Amino acid sequence: MYRRVAIIGGGAAAAALLSELLERQPSQPLHLDWYTGGDTSARGVAYGTRSDRHLLNVRAASMSMFAAKPRGFLDFAQRGDHTIAGTDFLPRRLYGDYLEAEVARALESARDAGHDVRVLPFAVDAVVPENEGVTVIHGEENSRVDAAVLALGSLPPQPLAGVSEAALESGQYVTEPWGFLASVKPDSRPLKVVLIGLGLTAVDVLLELSAQWPNAQFLAISRHGLLPESHLQSASAPVDDSSDLIESMRDAPDIRTWIRLLREAAAQSGDWRTVIDSLRPHTPTLWGLLPVSERASFLRHARWAWERMRHRMAPQVMASLQALENEGRLQRRRGRLQAVDVAGGKLHLDIRSPRDGSISSMDADVVIQTVGLNTDVRRTKHRLIRQLATNGHVTPDVLGLGCEGTTEGRLKHDGQTWPHLYAIGTLLRGTLWESTAMPEIRQQARNLADRILAP
Asked: What is the CB neighbour count within 10 angstroms for residue 360?
């Protein structure tokens, strides 16, 4: 008798879970339906880029797909180029190749082991969880499974407030930068391009468009006008295990105290990077100690600083952006977008200054929204998530960070926990906070596979 499992989502998190499930030797064969939602199975959005300008922001040695095989990605990369080192920041395209190769290997071994695996390039229309199992609905097909896992990644981006319908219909205001970059063609016109947001997505857009559009000028606008920080040229490790810092943070779960403790620890260590990195294994536990009011305070006042220090870019990427600024092609500005409309064939923007609240205006040929991950289940247009939320099958995180769940990945509804409906990755950000990068995803995949296959 088969154990029936459904994985819903086609990106790296889904690929990691699929491979973990098929790597095991469960007590009974699996019937596994993988609903990829399209043709980019395994790569997803994060690793779907084909540009060598888009680099991983984690060193190669730390990017294995499997928690139990820490050299997996590095070994794969070195088979193609023996000069690659574990400290290198490699193209995300290469990591996508690695994910596809691992999935292909897992699927081949699954057939030999007697598992029944279907890779279905469709989106799921509805999921109905019950205490005894889960029903997955796609078109006219209803499948009853023993466990279903939502591995959806980031939700589709929504236009910012103040963007007019005319601006959206013009095609000059871009809400989905990755689809835009995949179709962009070289253009030698002297274009003016405005980016709203200055995180890692903005970095990728700048790297690609500055090469494809050599005469374009770029203005990047964000609340603080700062780029993400950069990794050091050489890898560094914490001088100690930060146990005293962690204990002090546990004893006082409030954001103001934590900021003070982090500043003191950074001053003592001489390198703030080692302090931030030492928190990574402890972040979910620390996040869980914060009451909702403190989490909200963090999102309002400290998130921007945490994100730019925690999610750093490769040193060579920083050098490329500095060159753009030195050439005068890239300017950064503090501000908040108030309105975008069409005027005379261009987009007209109103920007509010954070200093005095004054409004300034400008025109642009293209505006690209690069504000990062969308995790707000309450406002998404994602069909499956809307169905789950509307029917009360999941409870949206009160701060817009995915769905309520347990640290083990089980999703909640009305304060209760579903025994057979799980999530992995971005939808658990409200529960774990640190839940979007591969080092965390692979551990979640390993633990979730153990849970699903438990007798």
From this structure: 12
C-alpha to C-alpha distance for 203 and 119, rounded to whole angstroms: 33
3-state helix, strand, coil in the chain (%, to 5): 40, 20, 40
Write the DSSP symbol of residue 174.
E
330 — phi, psi (to 5°)? -125, 130
Q: Considering only CA atoms, which of 365, 368, 426, 417 is closest in space to residue 393?
A: 417
Structure tokens at 168: 């959206």
Q: Please name the residues in contact with 240: beta carbons below 8 A apart, sequence gap of 6 or more.
A: none
Taking the CA atoms of 181, 184, 185 and 187 in sequence, report the sign of the dihedral they define.
negative
Q: Please check whether residue 153 is in contact with residue 382, taking contact to mean a CB–CB distance below 8 angstroms.
A: no
Alpha helices per DSSP H over 214-364: 243-251, 255-269, 272-279, 283-289, 292-301, 303-310, 315-326
Report how far Cα 275 is from the mean position of its chain's Cα atoms. Answer: 22
Q: 268 Cβ partners below 8 Å, 6+ apart?
A: none
In DSSP terms, 163 is beta-bridged to 340
- Of the candidates 172, 221, 199, which has an alpha carbon nearest to the alpha carbon of residue 365? 172
Summarised one tens digit per residue, pLDDT across range 121-148 is: 999 999 999 999 999 999 999 999 999 9
Determine the 3-state secondary structure of 315 from DSSP. helix
d(CA 195, CA 220): 5
Phi, psi of 245 (to 5 degrees): -60, -45
Instruction: Considering only the C-alpha atoms of the chain, give the largest distance between any 2 of them, rounded to a whole number of Å.
Output: 68
Whether residue 303 contacts residue 199, with contact meaning beta carbons closer than 8 Å, is answered with no
Cβ atoms of 16 and 441 within 8 Å: the answer is yes
**Sign (positive/negative) of CA torsion 88, 93, 99, 103?**
negative
Phi, psi at 338, each rounded to 5°:
-105, -40
- The closest alpha carbon to 76, from 95, 48, 54, 49, belongs to 95
Closest CA to 135 of 417, 444, 393, 404: 393
Model's pTM, two decimal places?
A: 0.94
Q: What is the pLDDT of residues 250-268, one digit of tens each?
A: 999 999 999 999 999 999 9
Of the candidates 43, 5, 42, 1, the residue with the CA atom closest to the CA atom of residue 22: 5
As given in the structure block, the two tokens for residue 97 are 């190749």
Exposed / middle / buried, residue 266 (Cβ in 10 Å: 0-12, 13-18, 19+): middle
